[in-house]
Amino acid sequence: MISVSKALSIISEVSYTPKVKTVPLKGTNGLVLSKNIDSSIHMPPFRQSAMDGYALLLHDKNTYQIIGEVKAGDPDDYSLLPGQGVRIFTGARVPNNANTVVIQEKVIRSEDIITVHGEVNKNQNIRAIGEQIKKGDIALAKGTKLSPAGIGFLSGLGVNEVQVFTPPSVAIITTGNELIPPGQKLQEGKIYESNSLQLQSVLEQSKIKKINKYIVQDEYESTKETIRQAIINNDLVLISGGISVGDYDFVKEALSELRTEELFYKIKQKPGKPLFFGRNNKTLIFALPGNPASSLTCYYIYVIPVIQKMMGTITSLGLKRTMKSLTEDFVKKGDRAQFLKAKTSEESVEVLEGQSSAMLYSYAVADALVFIPENINQIDKNSLVETILLPQ
Q1: 142/99 same-domain check
Q2: What biological process terms from GO does the record include (predicted)?
Q3: What is the bridge-based pairing of β-strands 261-265 and 107-110?
Q4: Does residue 132 form part of some domain?
Q5: Number of domains the chain contains
Q6: Are 268 and 280 spatial neighbours (Cβ–Cβ below 8 Å)?
Q7: 49 - beta bridge partners?
Q8: Is residue 64 domain-shared with residue 79, that is, in the same domain?
Q9: Helix (H, G, I), strand (E, B) or coil at 267
Q10: Beta-ladder partners of 288
């Protein structure tokens, strides 16, 4: 049994070469660039007005003759004489020899003559060519996670497709004779299966679309064959249940017979002690505890960093962590590290009722996990605790 920090260290060091693919820019939110994108144009590509007003060629008076108008998108240029100007609008091309734009609030107009009030400086309210980015400069670097703003920025540079690290294909294997699908009549001794849909939902939060689901009974040969097929056909395998030491827990034995390299098994934590992580050829494998809350906690803490790595993230692996003050005293039982379902406010965090590894109702309202290290047994109210923010 290893510590939480040791398990995370092993995950951070595991090697994986992400797959890459050129895809349309649309729909890439959350994906990671696999190569630098250089700008093919200056942005802006012409001298651009930053305000609605008047583009002028300055002279020594405060009155100007207006000889035309330039709207955003107009291709025309005007050659101004000193003391002349044009009406101009935000985003429009500034005439080549205009040397200032005066906002309309500082101008009084009478027919084609304007009078300017206040100080006027050269080049004010003019966006220079290449002010935002110059042609040939790196627009977004390899490893950048695309956001709506990043997608808008690239689209504004004329980019319509990008090369990204592609999300892995993921298998979800659910084990257990006691499980039946929701919608069927509940029989004695049976429970509704929830882990596969839960795992599918959190995978979709990570922009993973290729998800293959398998169901297997508690029988050794079928367990082994299902795992074998999942390893062959997927980049990542998540097995729910069957990894403990019961008479009908066959996952660990099957993985061993399939010559899976064990990277770690069992972590000194609660919930989620019987967690397995390994590799079989190029496929990475997690065997998660069967209890729903344990399974989800292990996913948040250990699977997400692996998925991030498989999708090209090279820094800041894992969920965001912060420090918040605890709303009540907390006493930990036992010597294992704990991940506690919690609810945050602006400055504080509340540990919720219902911390059992089988209880999901408290997870349904939680937005964080409070991490209590194994060497700490009591935390006083208002003390700062490490708080792991869950994806929403």
Answers
A1: no
A2: Mo-molybdopterin cofactor biosynthetic process
A3: unpaired
A4: no
A5: 4
A6: no
A7: 126
A8: yes
A9: strand
A10: 240
In the numeric block, the tokens 């892995």 are attached to: 168
> With helix as H, strand as E and coil as C, how does 318-335 read?
CCCEEEEEECCCEECCCC
Shared-domain flag, residues 246 and 300 = yes
Separation of alpha carbons 96 and 169, rounded Å = 54
Enter the tokens of residue 253.
């034995």
List the structure tokens of 316.
């800041």
> What φ, ψ does residue 167 adopt, rounded to 5°?
-60, 145
CA nearest neighbour of 342 among 324, 358, 315, 317:
324
CA gap 85, 72 in Å, rounded: 16
Range of the domain at 377: 321-389
3-class SS at 328?
coil
212/194 same-domain check: yes
**281 and 205 in one domain?**
yes
The answer to whether residues 275 and 201 belong to one domain is yes
- Asked if residue 315 is part of any domain, the answer here is no
What pTM, to 2 d.p., does this model score? 0.84
Please report whether residue 384 resides in a domain.
Answer: yes
With b meaning 16 or more CB within 10 Å and e meaning fewer, what string describes 313-339? beeeebbeeeebebbeebebeeebbbb
Terminal C-alpha separation, the chain: 31
Structure tokens at 49: 């007005």
Q: Can you tell me whether residue 206 is helix, strand or coil?
A: coil
Asked if residue 185 lies in contact with residue 196, where contact means CB atoms within 8 angstroms, the answer is no
**Contact in structure between 90 and 50 (CB atoms under 8 Å):** yes
Provide the token pair at 338. Answer: 């704990």
Amino acid at 237: V
Is position 301 within any domain? Answer: yes
Least confident interval from 77-81, 93-97, 191-195? 191-195
d(CA 274, CA 268): 9
Beta-bridged to residue 260, according to DSSP, are none
Query: Which tens digit of pLDDT belongs to each residue from 195-247?
Result: 888 999 999 999 899 999 998 888 889 999 999 999 999 999 999 887 876 66
What is the per-residue pLDDT for 218?
A: 80
Instruction: Give the H/E segment covering residue 270.
Output: strand 269-270
Alpha helices by DSSP H, listed for the chain, are: 4-13, 148-156, 195-205, 220-233, 251-257, 292-298, 304-310, 361-365
Do the Cβ atoms of 77 and 93 come closer than 8 Å?
A: yes
CA distance 252 to 262: 10
